[in-house]
């Protein structure tokens, strides 16, 4: 290395090449550009015309200068010029490069990578052996020394991890290295446990230098639910300046699309800033995560499991005597038990069932009305939990007496029994230990819980399987039966303290919690996790992005309850059979401290001027000079057609490169589209992406448009293809939708748009185009495709077009609707059932609405299709019969459009006489 | 032979829409050869022209007695003055006429030959006699002569420039010279003078390539003549443009001047413009403005 001022050269001896420049000057000067030779008949007129200046036989000075510049740029480039060269480190021995690679590095990861590349490049230039490690990703085989070039190649694939390094493994790996080496440690500036151990291991190998990145890292602390929202802490460390940012609560909206459900604007001032986000309970139940806006780090995300959710509990009591004391009320203990953790709803049965609650509690309700029972059964089958409590009413009723009631887990014996009363021999019974199969397994039973009255179950064969809690004498206390996805649970005692002391004990709460998964009743997550196995479903990467866990191994609940994020338990969402748990990078009570370095460690600031190799710039300059030289030579010899044209050429080539494509404003596009589509009546077809189908659709609608214009007063404009995802649909009366095999699934927004279109009077005309094979109720590929598309559409009940449907007489009198195929049924919205044939009237008075969907298979577009010259494009049938069929297809097309445009106008009875006359009756 | 056939076909195609050309002759009396070529005035000929009242001095045998018997006056029967004109063509076929800068490859000599033959056909239809001036055949009419002319027009010369040979011109004939006139001017001048002395009238048609007119050359250029014998080198061809144009315009002026002095007419035609324009002009020049 040889340096002049801020410039250094790697191969200074190459600069000797500059000595040949004077020689080059002489040579170039002597050789002018080659002449252009031309045959010309008018030479006689030219003879004797001399050039005004005679020097042009030599190369012009500016061209000479350009060429000399070119050559010297080349020579300098290969001499390896470096701006701000780093003084070469003295030691050339092995080097350990360590980067923390935690979530704190994630926001500045590209910078870290660039710096690493620089360090490795320098090591490469010094031919040093390097052992490179990302602390969070210690290779299983230990650290190895390799040439720096090899490490550089793999650098791009490194990503930060969403957890702190495993200090023990790292220290062990470092100690296992076989030679002494100095260390360069790129630290993220955050202390983690065991860091001193790593440092000690490194110092045992040689000197340690640390590069700390001056950065400000934000992290989101754990989330706590409070009265009207959530509160959480924002941790800031590193450079502590005031920062403005937003904390977002993300979750799905009712359509399943992820949205911002709430946000809070935060100005951080200290290392910990408390934040409060106001969220309504409905929104709170949907939140899946909290995150700091525009912060790419796993620590800026707080995943939320089920523990923020508040179940909705409906309480319904059988006793309607309002005069009783609260404390004697059936619902008093339930209300108290649930209100802490759930949203309790009380009200009329028909109102509360509509709220679709998580849990319905029936306290001593015996008989339900038929409709209520059906509703309740439906709700239970869909996953509801029905909790029933006994009481005098149930004991006195005949419910589930002879046959098993669907909303009762077991059959009941008449009456019930009392223990320990004045008229009985026995003592109040205590509870038996819960069995392993019981959901209450593991709960401690207080001694003072006694049962003095209960309802007895009939000893049926499946009784024992349904008992989940029993008294000391083996009689059932709680029985359970699953109904569909839900369950029905019966407490054989009352919900108040009349029959037992159970509602007075803490056990009651725990039991309810176990049954309803109302998690926050106790905060002992540990207790809940005991014995469970958690499988990861979605995991966080170091940048804070969620990804599907795939086949990651499950974690046992005991491990999970105390786990920090690590490579074995990565941050993410875990699922137990009952609940979802979140494991976050930053957990409750975490505090971050800046890393403290002992005196023995050299700390380098990272803002040293980085050295820049000038070689590429010089090479580019030389290349540019070469291009200019070429142009100049062309200009000198007159071979260039004209500078103007060259400039235009250069402009056309370069301008697109310089100017980024400027997106046309979407609003303008959509406005123009709307204007075109709405200025005249326009038929539309769905652009399927299949060119042949789209062309046929366009030509078909063109054919119908022409037939309409020729025969009716409807004169549509040229048909338009619509993209369902982007184009507005509201201006089209009819959208023709040919089903193709390649039809992709539609997004939720598209479905919303289509449903809105259909509800506001639009009609979608589906054509499966397989009328030749779809008859006889066979399921065709197109048919099943249509079903998959229409599954999420708001399609009303359908029926084949009845004989007296308006479609059969909106313009022509038709009974068949042929397209390219004949015979396949055409389906429209089912007519209202109450309209019946009235004697003497040929037509029913059908509903006023135009069917929002019309479904057929006859491939109408092909029959309608005309080329631009009006010629039919596709063959239909054979000979005259085929032409007749095409004519009928056009008639159907006209009927269809008029039906869509006029609705039930033709259904009006005022037309009946004329129609009867036409029909010859 | 094939080429001459092709040229003839093209010429006939071009000549087809033209009306018959009646070449004007100034000096009827001196013309010896008579033919079916009416001059629209009374004179020697075989066709009836008009009756006119006899005047004093008319010989008695000139009176048409049959016409005079129909009335009291005496009438003389006059015949139409008839004459066939001889037209000579000189079409320069030297090397410099082989130049072209056009993409369709229209060579100047091609254009000249086309014009000469088209005009020949038109003239022959009008009964004129036509000949090429450097051939021995005297002016004649008929398809055989046309074939001969076509053959004669397809013989390129090696010389850089050439000049017409006017020694065998019939007196008081007409002549058309087609050339680029870029060579030495003296032979042309001499030929014109000799022709004018023989009472020959006619037209000079200068045929130029657009490149010769515009001189679109730039940069260092070596210009070589068409047969490669003369060359001229310049470092900046674009500098020469104005001076070259001045010289070309001077040459045109000289030609115009020469033509005016000899009672001839002059036109400059460019090969990138249609051939019909100069053909019409030449037709009118030979016919003379009435």
TrEMBL record, chain A:
Regions crossing the membrane: 12-31, 61-83
InterPro entries documented for this protein: Aerotolerance_reg_N, Class_I_gatase-like, Double_TM_dom, DUF4159
Keywords: Membrane, Transmembrane, Transmembrane helix
UniProt keyword Transmembrane, yes or no: yes
Pfam families: BatA, DUF4159
Domain DUF4159 intervals: 682-901
Domain Aerotolerance regulator N-terminal as annotated: residue spans: 8-81
Keyword Membrane attributed: yes
UniProt-recorded name of the protein: Aerotolerance regulator N-terminal domain-containing protein
Organism: Pacificibacter marinus
TrEMBL record, chain B:
Record-annotated DUF58 domain positions: 50-250
InterPro entries in the record: DUF58
PANTHER family assigned to the protein according to its UniProt record, in alphabetical order: BLL2464 PROTEIN (PTHR33608:SF6)
Protein name per its UniProtKB record: DUF58 domain-containing protein
